[in-house]
Design a protein that fits this description.
Enzyme class: hydrolase
Strand content: 15-25%
Protein name: Serine hydrolase
Number of strands: 16
InterPro entries: Beta-lactam-related, Beta-lactam/transpept-like, Diverse_Enzym_Activities
Structural class: alpha+beta
CATH class of the largest domain: Alpha Beta
Distance between the termini: 76 Å
Pfam families: Beta-lactamase
Order of helices and strands: HHEEEEHEEEHHHHHHEEHEEHEEEEEH
Radius of gyration: 22 Å
CATH superfamily of the largest domain: DD-peptidase/beta-lactamase superfamily
Shape: globular
Number of helices: 12
Number of domains: 2
CATH architecture of the largest domain: 3-Layer(aba) Sandwich
Largest sheet: 8 strands, mixed
GO molecular function: hydrolase activity
Helix content: 25-40%
């Protein structure tokens, strides 16, 4: 009888502990450990539907795919290098034709991969669309025009442009290994709105660039309010996913199931080919097959470096040669090089001990 009792008690404790771990932010951080490209499976989400009319890249008849690399004086095939660097998808598109497309480590063209911070660049595109639609008047507006709850203690001085360039001056702990940090709260928490209401100023806005996922989430809050009842995901579907002829539906992870808010600092879940189309849109100055999707002025502003920006403007990473990138923490990239008419998408389980920026530059030099 005692044995049965202790077994029941052990089972009860195990169930209770598991429930506790998966029902609070710190518990979920411990339970799931660290971010993974399969995290789209653990969060609630909304779906952006693809249109019935699909856009398919042509496949080059004479592909100029890299054959080999020399790394640390050792020659290796490009395929083997990518596989060994925990890459799951790699696409090179030159002059609107696929030069190279390979999938690794059990992934294929239909595999869903979490975008992580590449979503920041997509959020920026939607802000540009909202400006075009007159839903947002100007990036010079204070964010409190849309989030009046933050009209206090210096937060009222932060403009939408400050958020876009990550110069808000709002305190945010970006650590991804600290379960008590803001990044963990935003990623695993279940009330983003409440978390944003608790933001405090660290210093005056408009100063130096400080990478902050909190700024992008506030942009998402501004966008949600500007949309007046329409969800951010439905706006993504309307403005990008259907007009760009995406091949597959996408999802955007939420903080909670009921009345959830999109995690605009991360968490668009899609396929490699469709991520490449985001690059194509900007490569063509916001135009898609003759139709202006987002203004060319917004694309120019987002991809032109300004003094003091540290190579970061409107949620895009900028290089001195005119190329630019959307980046995710585990080595997700959309690389665009207008001078070469080149797009590269790399998705991976992690960075794989590789300087991807340097590799993209090297590949671009040979195209």
């Amino acid at each position: 009888m005692k044995t049965y009792f202790y077994r029941c008690l052990t089972l009860f404790c195990l169930i209770s502990t598991t429930t506790l771990l998966t029902s609070c932010t710190i518990g979920r951080f411990a339970y799931y450990n660290f971010a993974n490209i399969t995290d789209h499976k653990i969060f609630p989400s909304r779906t952006a539907k693809a249109d019935s009319v699909k856009f398919h890249y042509a496949v080059s008849k004479n592909p100029r795919a890299p054959k080999k690399l020399t790394i640390r004086n050792k020659e290796t095939s490009f395929d083997d290098y990518l596989k060994g660097s925990n890459t799951v998808a790699f696409i090179i598109i030159k002059n609107d034709s696929i030069q190279y497309e390979k999938y690794f480590n059990g992934y294929n063209e239909e595999s869903v991969v979490a975008s992580f911070s590449m979503a920041k660049s997509v959020t920026s595109i939607l802000i540009g669309c909202a400006l075009d639609d007159g839903l947002i008047k100007s990036t010079d507006e204070p964010m409190v025009n849309y989030i009046p709850e933050l009209n206090h203690d210096g937060l009222e001085k932060v403009t939408i442009k400050d958020l876009l360039d990550m110069k808000s001056g709002i305190h945010f702990n970006e650590s991804y290994v600290n379960p008590f940090g803001d990044a963990a709260t935003y990623y695993y928490g279940r009330n983003l709105r409440r978390s944003m209401y608790n933001r405090k100023m660290a210093h005056a806005p408009g100063g130096d660039f400080e990478y902050s996922s909190g700024d992008t989430q506030l942009l998402g809050f501004v966008l949600e309010r500007a949309l007046k009842g329409k969800t951010i995901t439905s706006y993504l579907e309307e403005k990008l996913w259907k007009p760009l002829g995406m091949e597959y539906d996408a999802t955007w992870s939420l903080d909670k199931e009921k009345d959830g808010l999109e995690k605009t600092f991360c968490c668009i879940n899609a396929r490699a080919r469709d991520f490449a189309k985001i690059g194509r849109l900007y490569l063509n100055n916001g135009k898609w097959n003759g139709k202006q999707i987002v203004s060319s002025q917004w694309v120019k502003e987002s991809t032109t470096s300004i003094p003091g920006s540290e190579g970061y403007t409107n949620q895009w990473w900028l290089n001195s040669d005119g190329s630019y990138l959307a980046k995710g923490i585990l080595g997700q990239y959309i690389y665009v090089n207008p001078a070469k008419n080149l797009i590269i998408v790399r998705l991976g389980k992690n960075h794989g001990n590789t300087d991807w920026d340097g590799l993209f530059d090297s590949l671009a030099a040979n195209y």
